[in-house]
Q: What sequence folds into this?
């Protein structure tokens, strides 16, 4: 990719190569990705999956519909999707500011579109790609998401009611 002027390149996510130190390695967002938001597990038997996860987590879901069940786990989402493909396995969704821009950036870097961007409710928009090694990567634009240390779920802050925190 194009150099950054300092002779160093930039990776897919916009981070300069060779960046070091806590801010560079563990900062609040790396280029287009803001951080992990949601992991959605396939749940062909949604009732059984909901009962199992409720037992394991010790809480009931905050969102419970026939098409999706969502649990708040430390301010992040653990989702159950009865329509998801068990052969694919769980899909991690990474937060982005603009899912259309992020999807285009992944595709330009060699990923294939698996699911086009769609709204899933409450202004939340998602899409998925398949990266060159074959893994599915989810992208989520969620205007309601607040990190727990910034006043999110663990600190008593409000989050949007709906899937994909």
A:
């Amino acid at each position: 990719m194009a150099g950054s002027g300092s002779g160093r390149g930039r990776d897919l996510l916009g981070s300069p190569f060779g960046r070091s130190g806590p801010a560079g390695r563990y900062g609040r967002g790396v280029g287009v990705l803001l951080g992990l938001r949601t992991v959605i597990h396939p749940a062909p038997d949604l009732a059984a999956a909901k009962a199992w996860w409720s037992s394991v987590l010790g809480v009931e879901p905050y969102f419970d519909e026939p098409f999706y069940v969502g649990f708040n786990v430390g301010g992040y989402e653990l989702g159950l999707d009865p329509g998801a493909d068990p052969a694919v396995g769980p899909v991690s969704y990474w937060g982005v500011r603009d899912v259309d821009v992020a999807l285009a950036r992944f595709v330009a870097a060699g990923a294939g579109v698996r699911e086009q961007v769609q709204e899933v409710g409450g202004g939340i928009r998602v899409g998925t790609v398949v990266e060159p090694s074959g893994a599915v990567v989810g992208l989520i634009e969620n205007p309601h998401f607040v990190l727990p240390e910034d006043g999110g779920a663990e600190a008593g802050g409000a989050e949007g009611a709906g899937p994909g925190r």
In short: The CA atoms of residues 10 and 16 lie 4 Å apart. Helices lie at 21-26, 46-57, 99-108. The first helix runs from residue 21 to 26. The beta strands are 35-42, 63-65, 68-73, 76-81, 91-95, 112-121, 124-130, 136-141.
